Amino acid sequence: MALPFLPGNSRNTRLGKERFHKSQHFDYTNGFPMLVGSEKPGIGGERLMPAWLAFDKQVISIMPYFQEAVQEVQEGRNRIRKCKIYFYLEDDTIQVVDPEYKNRGIPQGTLICRQRIPLPPPRPGALLQHLPLQHQPPGGAVLPHIHRDQLQGVLLNAPAEAPADPYCILRQQLEDSMKPLRPYERHDTLRHFLDHDGKVLRFYCLWDDTESAFGERRELVLHYFLSDDTIEILEVVPAQLRERRPRPGSCSAAVFCLHSVRGLHPVQYKAPPAPKPPRPVPPYNGFGSEEDSLSSCRGLAAQAGAELPRKDGTTDPVDQERLFHVSYHLCDDTISVIGGKFLLRCRVKKPGQDLFKSELSEYFTAPDLYVGATLCLGGRSFRILEADEFTLNYMQQRADEFPKANVGNILSKLRSVPEEKQAEMRKYLALSDPNNTGSIAYESFRSLLTGLDCGLSEHEVLVLGRGFWERPQPEPDLGLMLAVAQDLLRKNHFEQFPHLVREFTHQDPEK
Predict the structure, then answer these.
(1) Residues whose CB is less than 8 angstroms from the CB of residue 455 and which lie 6 or more positions away in sequence, other chains included
(2) Where along the chain do its domains lie?
(3) pLDDT tens across 287-311, in order?
(4) Could you tell me the sign of the dihedral formed by the alpha carbons of 253, 254, 258, 259, in that order?
(5) Which PROSITE patterns does the entry mention (predicted)?
(6) What is the CA radius of gyration of the chain?
(7) pTM for this structure?
(8) Which of 10, 153, 428, 491 is buried deepest, with most CB atoms within 10 A?
């Protein structure tokens, strides 16, 4: 039992000491008192920090054992008891604890409460240097040292092993005998089946039966079903040997395949198959599409090709002035031309390609369509005059895919223009903007870039104009706003107009 920290109940720390001098921590420097030695020891050369603060929460754990004699017990005359000794550095106290075991039949737990244990006279209380030695504790049992934590500055004994306790061994055997394996018990395999249903491991095996009479080497396939842990072994019969053979199911083959799951590596028992020689593709014969002709060469069943509308070119001036609507479908790279049902939705080849060749033809893609481009569709040439707002925004948002809509590339082309043309451009801009407002009309800007032959297409000029276009902000229409507000109030059956007038007056008292 611990005593209260009162005078007379605590030990005198000055007993046994002969030095009581006080270290000098302050001195005068240039006539001023200053701290000159904060690391100097305290009274009698001791450290200034007390032990309870320097060694707070620092405990040395030692795991010893002792042999306790027992009487009138058939399991043996003694028992090996393993315990733990805790040495608290803050006040040099010791606590001995015996771990609890199930159905041991002897008192367990704390054997010695936390206290200072004196050594036999004439030596004073317990010290750290005496812990590794064999000593006689109050219980009268021998506590040889087994192992303890490392502590700097203290020489430790080599760790040892504790002998086995016969009683603990007997108790473990009894507990194991009370829990035998019961294969007749029913296990719920529904979750295992649901988690692994349809999952099968396949292994390629070889049954070498050449040592027996009429034996041969047979290739096998082993299927391991994870849903119910069952095995199926099938024989790989060559195409030229279709006679029915008995299904092999020897234990050696199954054990070999099961052990392959445990970490064995596959064995190469036959030469790898020779690589197939490349098969040349014949040239296109003109029937159907090129993709269908190529598929018929690679497969056994030919498929019917899709018919494409074909029209010859014309020089009719009426057709030259007609306007058409060209649509490009991004999902499948197809083009349709609407203007009297001119061209149905299909992929269109680029002109100037050989018809009969082994390679696939090139088709029109999205970057090929821009304002000012000329496309050959259905045997006629179409010039793109303009595009809708969605198309222009789509191309500008994906400038890396559409070079004609990349503002950076357009500005790079303008910077590479010779100095003479740049001087003409400055002169033209000054004449087009006499009031020095910083802006000109789009038609003048377009005429400037197309007239100087800067290498820009119609779409690039349009993108450049859209990028620097000043959009005037429309003035707010108070009448329109008032009409919309009145219409909304009327539809919602609003009747609290006096409250609304008071709120307007409060928010805008000047009107």
Answers:
(1) 413
(2) 53-161, 192-238+246-261, 321-386, 414-467, 478-507
(3) 777 777 777 776 655 444 333 333 3
(4) negative
(5) DM10
(6) 50
(7) 0.37
(8) 428
